[in-house]
Amino acid sequence: MGTILREGYLTGAETDAGYWEWNMNGELPFDADLLEQIGYEPCELTVQPVWRNKISAKSEADFRCRLKLHIDSHAAIPLACEISFLHANNSSQCYFFTGKVIRWSVFGEPLLMCGSYINTTRQRQAERELEKLKDFLTKTNRAARIGTWEINIETKSTTWTAVTRSIFAVGSDFVPDYSNFLDFFYDEDRERLDEAYRQAVLHGKPYDLELRIINGKGKALWVHTVGNPEFERGRCTRVYGIFQDITAQKRDEEKLQKKQTQLEAFISTAPAALAMLDRSFRYIAASKIWMASYNIDIKTIIGKSHLDVFYEISEEWKDYMRRCLNGESFKEEEESFVRRDGRTEWLRWEIKPWYETPERIGGVILFTELITDRKLAKEELVKAKETAENALQAKSRFLSVMSHEIRTPMNAVIGFTNLLLEDPREDQLEYLKLLKFSADNLMVIINDILSLSKLEESMVTIESVDFNLKELLENIRAINKQTVTEKGIGLNLNYDSKLPVVIKGDTVRLGQVITNLVNNAIKFTQKGAVTINASLVTDFDDNAIISFEVCDSGIGIPEDKQEHIFEVFTQASTDTTRKYGGIGLGLAICRKLVALMGGDLKVSSQENEGSVFYFSLQLKKGQSNQENTPIVKKEAQLGDIAGKRVLLAEDNQINVLVVKRYLEKWGVVCDVAINGQIALQMLWSGHYDMVLMDLQMPVMDGYEASRQIRMSSNYGNLPVVAITASLVGDVKQSILASGMNDWISKPFNPNELYEKIRKYTSPACGDEPLLA
């Protein structure tokens, strides 16, 4: 094969062309010279034959086919073929080749062909782009339901595209013209279209309308039509335009309009201050409360800008509204603003976007609520709360002081009673027992009154110790014997012999309840008797259910008052306190105590016939070996603490006397300091095994003295035990924080005091940890 390029030239600004000759001894005319001419680099032409893999398979097959036809026809059929050449950069170049055999052998074989070529790449690309655009427009029109139409004024012919026929639901055999074209439209819309068409033809006015049609299938549709007239020499030659099916869009608009109408109606009647604004912040709707709150007329603001109506709006609010159009929401529970008249108001507000469609924000909705009255009421409530808290703190301080002041003398009463009971005369024993019983109950009552809030919150601890129930009830009966004798009434005790001798429970709390019920019964009984009943309800192996009753023949309680008498500070009658005394606290405390012990205090009464207060408790059986239990440790144990040196820091001389009497009986050496400062001086100058520290003392209290002791290198581990008349629950944390090891409450139990001294003065006391 040999190809001779006669000449290469550029026939136009963008078209390459040339001539070629082919010595037809070879396969194809595409040798290196030709391929270089059409853009290949020499380095790409090393493989033989050089055209291999550079011509698409389709182009090669097509060329061979046409070449064969040309040769077979002895050049009667021209050779003309477009060939696509493949380049290394994956681009393709198209060339249109023509040729003719001009020399033949005597045997009719082709010897020489000459021809020309021209680059058609750009033309093919343009055709492909045009076809692609045409396809795109066709698909877009179909997707958007947009069809085109044309009316030739001179020939009166009408042309519809396939999409237009689809919109009007007619087949390809339908021949549209202007008259049958108008028949599809509603009457009023037909008149509008006809008039618009006439204006276009006569005066060159284009039109853009939304109209309703009934298509060939009887379906009602909305169409958007555009008409454009075309003139030549002042005369309209044709009108062309589009038809678009906008039925879905119109339905969405109708739905949106319906929703917007409903929203406007809701806002206008909403029981809150609401306003609806468009994207330019113009009023669409506002509620009656909005108008009333800001003293405006809805007729004067619809269509006006909110920023003009409320020109005093801050830049911050304007920014909120602008950001709201981007989908953000804002709210504030409390914010103050100044009215135009200078009055300060409080406002709760919220700004949210509202949506025309799920994707498009139509504007903003404002919600405001004037909360000035609520704010002022809240401030008053806060002040009242602060006042109540201050009163509560004052009450707590008062109760704390009263607790200390009352428990301090009670310490002397109970302490000296315990001392007398250690070696009583025979004729004094009964009175001393009753005195101790009364003092113990009085102490419990005082504690309950001073911590009534704790009792109401069920914070009172119920103990479980062995005690003789019959002895408890007989003591209660004995202590009230003189009172009933003076009133001339009876006081009976019915004790079920089947009851266990010893039971486990809180003897003080149970005694307090029954004592209170007996005292009430005696107080309200003028004749007859008061009876205490204790009976066995159910007997189990290790516990028993016991019923308690206190019956009287007194004034009784009206039925409508029977539940109220258990309320705090409540009496059955307004003149009860004046006539019989009392403050209406006892029954409330009794019911709570019975509930804490697992029972329910109830009453059965008839006016002027007496009352019965009753409850049942399930109590464990105790060990019947507590006869003659000593009140304090006997001489056999004195060696445990005898000889120990104790420093007592106490400023109350009576309490000093009580404590020293017990310490002397136990063989303990005791020195006294009347305040914390003196106690520290005595510690630095002497040796002590333990300190009993009062908390409230002049000059330096027990807390500060304990902190000073803990800071000392010599006495940092010295046992310090608080001895306090305050309620331990109120001062426990302060006691521990100051570094004290333990505490004892006033009035103290001698056994407890003895055990504390023995515990903290034993050889291992230095290793005792602080209580947590």
Description:
With 772 residues, the protein is an alpha+beta fold. The chain contains 24 helices and 27 strands. The strands form 5 sheets. Strands 16, 17, 18, 19, 20, 21 and 22 form a 7-stranded mixed sheet that branches. It has a 5-stranded antiparallel sheet with strand order 1-2-5-4-3. The longest helix is centred in the middle third of the chain and has 51 residues, at 372-422. It is elongated.
**Portion of residues within helices:** 40-55%
Distance between the termini: 112 Å
Low-confidence stretches: 1-15, 572-583, 626-638, 766-772
How much strand content do the residues show? Answer: 25-35%
Count the helices. How many?
24
Class from helix and strand fractions = alpha+beta
**Secondary structure tally: strands:** 27
Shape: elongated
- Major beta-sheet overview: 7 strands, mixed
* Rg of Cα set: 57 Å
The average pLDDT score comes to 81
